[in-house]
Design goal:
The chain is of the alpha/beta class. It contains 17 helices and 17 strands. It has two domains: about 260 residues, Rossmann fold, CATH 3.40.50; about 190 residues, P-loop containing nucleotide triphosphate hydrolases (Rossmann fold, 3-Layer(aba) Sandwich).
Amino acid sequence: MGSSAATARGQSGPGASSTCIPRAGPQAACSRRPGGLSRPTGGCCRPRNGKVRMDSEIRDFESLGLSPRLVARLADQGINDPTPIQAQAIPHALKGRDVLGLAQTGTGKTAAFGLPLIHGLSGSGARPDPKTASGLILAPTRELARQIVEHLRALTRGSHLRIELVTGGASINNQVRALHKGVDVLVATPGRLIDLLDRKAVRLDLTSRLVLDEADQMLDMGFIHALRRIAPLLPRARQTMLFSATMPAQMEELSRAFLTDPVRVEVAPPGKVADRIEQSVHFVPKADKVPLLIDMLGAHKAERSIVFARTKHGAERLMKKLVAEGFAAASIHGNKTQGQRDRAIAGFKGAQVKVLVATDVAARGIDIPGVAHVYNYDLPNVPENYVHRIGRTARAGAEGRAIAFCAEDEAGELAAIQKILPEPLRVAGGTPWKAAQAAKGGKPGGGGGRGGQQQQRRRRRSGGGGQGRGARQAA
């Protein structure tokens, strides 16, 4: 069958693989889907070694099967060669297959799902019905959603496709009006989409293409209940692509709920960081963190840096201290209005702002070239977030540095982070805390200290992370 994994073609690279996740039950016939898509409804074919053979001659976008118009648009932007995740995912997506894509940050996942989505919708020629979206892309944060829209609009300029953004922090009445005539691609955060569904401003029964981007962060932010509400509103006959940089255990539930017979494309082990990031850790008392950060930022004052803090109030206080020391700094977190967040990002992009202090709300929503340094001023409670934070540097093949500050009560967080990394972080300063002190930090994976314990209690109460107030505000 044309969409069989055994005949799928793509491009392989070091450490790359593409496999099918089989479903139980006998092989079934193809079911037709809206927009001319089809997919197998039973099991999938798998070569003996568990991997799909890939054609080595696929080295450019034209060879992937994209339309000449899209290839020309990419060339106009100076993009001629697909990244490994693009070379592997796009051929499967063009055949209508569901795709589970695993790749580290900064590897081009947006184009990996955006290009086949645009290709399919452009070729169908169908106009969306009122209050419907032919394609839906869900992203965990406003910044990431806005970034996706910017990429897609650059690729569709001059075409008939309508792409709309709906996130929190903007007028919901304006969004209701924008959706009234229907859109080709809707990019949304889960919280705001739920709000619009409750107002009956949009329906999803005709959405034939769905993308979940950075799905693991949606789980971290407590959007699992929102996703459970959204899933039954979508037609069963659809194409779904799910992309993530890590593969936590709860992703299995998400995969079963949204994907059917997916092809798994993986260009690096889940949680792997970019090879060009030089990582190190400083063991430093909490009271000495600010002076150390000021010294390190001062040594590279002309370069862009992102500093990650754990809390919104902590990020704001730290930003004000840096401004008082003469640094061109701004902050971005959940207490900022959308306009304030947009101005901070614009200033950082334009280099008027050299230091951006952020909480994890920005960890996957910033795709700005030239970020030389990422400072983990506070270590994250969720170890996988370390990977996403430092992925803001060394984008698109560049080099970068990631520096972690570890206070005594963060030893548990550091231990959890070390477990998901292939090798220990290089000690650049201070003396590692003793094993007895590390034990006080809490169990690895849960995050030591009061913040980590509070987060664990909240997750237990909500059954694995509910869509709480913080998550809705972040969206």
